[in-house]
Fold these 4 entries.
Entry 1:
Amino acid sequence: TQLLEQSPQFLSIQEGENLTVYCNSSSVFSSLQWYRQEPGEGPVLLVTVVTGGEVKKLKRLTFQFGDARKDSSLHITAAQTGDTGLYLCAGEVTGASGSRLTFGEGTQLTVNP
Amino acid sequence: NAGVTQTPKFQVLKTGQSMTLQCAQDMNHNSMYWYRQDPGMGLRLIYYSASEGTTDKGEVPNGYNVSRLNKREFSLRLESAAPSQTSVYFCASSGLRDEKLFFGSGTQLSVL
């Protein structure tokens, strides 16, 4: 059972369309990170959200952290072919034994010309 | 401007063979990690090292050993490879535990 559930698992859209990717959990996270991974490369950090309700924008990408810090979303406006990649969310859970970062299984996004 | 460097890029092993995956970072980071990535499973932590001289088990440590040779280098060893260890392996580093992770480009390992 995944601690973090990402949906959809696969998404194929046309250039110019908007899309939203979701990252959900029953656990409360002290912070949540979003990464993007291209084929043959390691993930690259896009953003970290820390505060419940926080919204961060990175050009056409909008990241939101849920009020209860259990979920997050990534919205892309007017998708471009260069947005194609695997999008991963990673939540940090802090407990008695320290913090632990857990990754979701990812959303594979394909933007077609 | 190398960041995190992993070697080799590709490796094919026979069941029972051993090998070591090498990782080095040039960002003076304290924490280093080894992950494996499998389809539909996301990234799973094998071992991590919060600082030089310390190593701890992650989510899936069985069949692996690690060595934090110095602050720069963190190696992953498979003593007796099994087909279940076929995966893509990523090394990562961060300044503090679980803050922004910098990843290497991965090692594609196949165990026949």
Note: The mean pLDDT of chain A is 93.
Entry 2:
Amino acid sequence: GESVGLHLPTLSVQEGDNSIINCAYSNSASDYFIWYKQESGKGPQFIIDIRSNMDKRQGQRVTVLLNKTVKHLSLQIAATQPGDSAVYFCAENRDYKLSFGAGTTVTVRA
Amino acid sequence: DTAVSQTPKYLVTQMGNDKSIKCEQNLGHDTMYWYKQDSKKFLKIMFSYNNKELIINETVPNRFSPKSPDKAHLNLHINSLELGDSAVYFCASSQGTEGKGFFGQGTRLTVV
């Protein structure tokens, strides 16, 4: 089926290290992707987005990479901090709606 | 100021009851959404309204009825609540239908 999925449900990272969260999508027609962060007890919070005419986009400590050839999306977090502990979702926009992947729970070890 | 606010934050009710969740956004957005997040954290869109018109209705039981009195409000009414309706419901808004949404804090609905 056509869906957005994540490779790993959990990721444990040492504080200060870089984190890489992966996401695969199967709809080649998707042209807009978003990463969200959801902390416990809160709603998803926008992190960064990217359009299909780009391969890379950088924000503050975060970088999103898009590989359309293999339909792969990744979020890189530099110098991971305890406050980065959360569930991360990738989402693709198609047909006027966001379709979310299952989420990756990131735990930062002190 | 809270951008997207939902009330109530927690809702515990018995099976068969009817309940409503309210949502308001002060971002000036023209599109609002309801999402359901299950116990495994999976988020799925339920409804979307653009300028008070329903544009997305995702195979949701007709016990769920959204209402948008104006662009800043999107309420969700649920009739005859069932155990399987227990979940966290999120309201979101965006400018346009592209889906880059700002989410509320969620309403945790527990049906007992």
Note: The interface with chain B takes residues 32, 34, 36, 38, 41-46, 49, 87, 89, 91, 93, 96-100, 102-103 of chain A (CB under 8 Å).
Entry 3:
Amino acid sequence: NAGVTQTPKFRVLKTGQSMTLLCAQDMNHEYMYWYRQDPGMGLRLIHYSVGEGTTAKGEVPDGYNVSRLKKQNFLLGLESAAPSQTSVYFCASCLLAGGPRSTGELFFGEGSRLTVL
Amino acid sequence: RKEVEQDPGPFNVPEGATVAFNCTYSNSASQSFFWYRQDCRKEPKLLMSVYSSGNEDGRFTAQLNRASQYISLLIRDSKLSDSATYLCVVTSGGGADGLTFGKGTHLIIQP
């Protein structure tokens, strides 16, 4: 059971380049999330999805787009990368259909370290 | 006032000692509370929930003080492997829009 898998794990981009981070979960979870984690800032929610075909904005959505074409996959796109997007990105999914607030349990991927030069 | 605040530390504690740290929250309507653990360069993982009556899991005890709006985590007989960053989570109401994490308290257990 792989759980939550993120690819790539490391990437270096130049300003203005585009890229897509892929999150895949094999637990049949409905809810999926993209966070970024920066020193001194903690984890901040970028976008999330409550099911296939649906997405919603989180706390820091600007500069990112997402898609959930298949239940098991949640893609995070950077159309024109900026140095401010240098961060560690975590994908997470939730077990219960009622959302993570009841159990508090989000299952995280191992993270993707992105550097924008 | 920030929604969730934690002392970033680091807390340097000798092995075998007891250590405790708090997390304060601003929303008095908050209903659910959790502690996560994050090892260096790893993903966060749920450590334990915090119930109104407090709860204990082995060497770990979590407590909630609604009057003063904080939760606490106490670790007894600390081990080297307890070295990590501990993130608190405070939520209010239901919904799917994720969890809000504190910035974390860094704990270093020294031999």
Note: The CA atoms of residues 38 and 44 of chain B lie 4 Å apart.
Entry 4:
Amino acid sequence: IAGITQAPTSQILAAGRRMTLRCTQDMRHNAMYWYRQDLGLGLRLIHYSNTAGTTGKGEVPDGYSVSRANTDDFPLTLASAVPSQTSVYFCASSLTGDTEAFFGQGTRLTVV
Amino acid sequence: KQEVTQIPAALSVPEGENLVLNCSFTDSAIYNLQWFRQDPGKGLTSLLLIQSSQREQTSGRLNASLDKSSGRSTLYIAASQPGDSATYLCAVMDAGGTSYGKLTFGQGTILTVHP
């Protein structure tokens, strides 16, 4: 089934550790995004990529990095996790920047 | 900065009712507006996308309207069913080069349809 796959589904991480959240899409979408969802704050954009080889910062990029080596994959890395990064992380993609966005099932991350 | 507000925050209705969810946004310069559904512990499912040049979109029992000049959108659900129970999220994409592709979300409306 075509769509977006995120891994892991959930993770408990010790503060200070490095972690990479994986996101793969098989729809050949050009644009990909990472959002975090927090109670009371809603969904906020972390980083985005409008095409392979380019990335940009969203609303809350600090403490996160991304890469876009190819069309299908858009990993999100936490270099040194902190408790405030406890959240549910969603990867999304769209054919182009102004078309319908599709979301993955999310990664629930707890930093302790 | 774009701000998106959804009213009401929660809604509980009996099965069979027609209902309206509201979304307002502060900056009318948008590319499009998208409505999503989110079930507890799950990802977001796209329901409808309305381009800025459109006034409404329909999919089955769902109808979304857009009044860009007043900064409002409504999602109309006809003949509601218990399976419609979920959180409904509205998101806008601002026009302008640096905003391309970025969605600003509302806080959502939690809908409960009881039998």
Note: The two ends of chain A are 35 Å apart (CA to CA).
